[in-house]
């Protein structure tokens, strides 16, 4: 019979044999996590070099930010970070040396740092409660919103400390910096669109305007708030690190962009469906899209399908922090069989992604996008 344990052991044996030979791989999460520890230690040690602060104050900063980094940066699926490592492997078409693995992992961790900055801020913006199975950072009793906002800004700044420390002499240094700066801008534009699906007026939410919830607006929102930082950035960093110049050979960047927009839209639609239907203990977070009156794929799709009576259920209950109202919205989603609509969409997107990936030249570059699609297809969290 099939014994998965034996297969896993074989894989582990292969990995440890590779590690012995100094070959590092994007499948090696432990090696990737070790690089986080190095980066964290470097950044925390920087507090010691600050002039004009007492040792007590430095100690306080070091303790607080050690805890902050450990709680906000690792702990996710690390797909964005590992994709950079995978991208460099695919572009080099060979196993990486220890130095190349370290460099690629440092870049990967900067994407995870960017994610941490966005998530700390996003959880405050959305009044979220849990993240990765723990309280959101700002919800911790020794943090609060006062620290949470500043900590998000500090997390963003640390990206540029690490990039300077590790890549200042790299020929692509400026390009790497600009990728982070541009991606941050795109994500912030997306966050604005996302937060103002229902606009504010007179210091509170304006009355619900369901006409704003269209798939067209949805696509624009997702492109900016998710696709660029969750997919394109990792691919573009691998290209830049490997010396692919966007001026002289823009085609690889253009192709990466096209595939990443597709993958990102599919990923965000999954995220919206999971927000409403996945058990929080599996998902690691409690969904608040209905309460936050988000322009979610589910509400956009529902509005295309509803009868006038069903539409009234949304008018009466969408965007309210009321448990019974949320239940009614979810019941409507079930009644409209949106999970089936999603499953059909998922199969359709998978085929569209496969076709788009197959059209990429050089063929070796396809492997990176197959890796990404494999990470997200039919995911449960």
UniProtKB/TrEMBL annotation:
One GO molecular-function entry: metal ion binding
PROSITE patterns: POLYPRENYL_SYNTHASE_1, POLYPRENYL_SYNTHASE_2
Cofactor needs: Mg(2+)
Entry GO terms, CC: cytoplasm
Pathway(s) where this gene product acts: Pheromone biosynthesis
InterPro entries hit by this protein: FPS1-like, Isoprenoid_synthase_dom_sf, Polyprenyl_synt, Polyprenyl_synt_CS
Record field: transmembrane: none
Keywords from the named record: Magnesium, Metal-binding, Transferase
GO biological process, one term: pheromone biosynthetic process
Family the UniProt entry places it in: Belongs to the FPP/GGPP synthase family.
Protein name as annotated: Farnesyl diphosphate synthase
Native species: Ditylum brightwellii
């Amino acid at each position: 019979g099939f014994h998965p344990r034996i297969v896993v052991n074989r894989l582990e044996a292969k990995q440890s044999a590779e590690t012995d030979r100094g070959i590092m791989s994007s499948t090696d999460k432990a090696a990737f996590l070790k690089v986080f520890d190095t980066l964290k230690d470097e950044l925390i040690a920087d507090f010691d070099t600050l002039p004009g602060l007492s040792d007590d104050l430095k100690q306080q900063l070091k303790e607080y930010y050690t805890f902050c980094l450990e709680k906000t940066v690792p702990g996710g699926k690390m797909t964005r970070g590992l994709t950079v490592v995978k991208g460099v492997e695919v572009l080099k078409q060979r196993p990486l040396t220890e130095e190349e693995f370290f460099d690629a992992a440092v870049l990967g961790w900067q994407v995870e740092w960017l994610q941490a900055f966005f998530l700390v801020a996003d959880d405050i913006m959305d009044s979220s409660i849990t993240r990765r199975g723990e309280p959101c950072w700002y919800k911790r009793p020794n943090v609060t919103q006062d620290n949470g906002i500043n900590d998000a800004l500090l997390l963003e700044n640390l990206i540029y400390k690490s990039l300077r420390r590790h890549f200042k002499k790299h020929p692509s240094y400026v390009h790497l910096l600009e990728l982070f700066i541009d991606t941050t801008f795109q994500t912030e534009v997306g966050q604005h669109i996302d937060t103002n699906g229902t606009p504010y007026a007179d210091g509170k939410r304006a009355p619900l305007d369901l006409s704003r919830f269209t798939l067209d607006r949805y696509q624009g929102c997702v492109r900016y708030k998710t696709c660029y930082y969750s997919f394109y950035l990792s691919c573009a960093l691998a290209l830049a690190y490997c010396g692919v110049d966007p001026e002289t050979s823009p085609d690889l960047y253009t192709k990466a962009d096209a595939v990443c927009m597709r993958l990102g839209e599919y990923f965000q639609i999954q995220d919206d469906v999971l927000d409403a239907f996945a058990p929080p203990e599996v998902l690691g977070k409690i969904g608040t899209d209905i309460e936050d009156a988000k322009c979610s794929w589910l509400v956009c799709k529902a509005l295309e399908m509803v009868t006038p009576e069903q539409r009234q259920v949304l008018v009466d209950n969408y965007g309210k922090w009321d448990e019974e109202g949320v239940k009614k919205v979810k019941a409507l989603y079930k009644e409209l069989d949106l999970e089936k609509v999603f499953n059909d969409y998922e199969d359709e997107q998978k085929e569209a992604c496969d076709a788009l990936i197959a059209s990429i030249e050089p063929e070796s570059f396809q492997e990176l996008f197959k890796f990404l699609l494999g990470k997200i297809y039919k995911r449960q969290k």
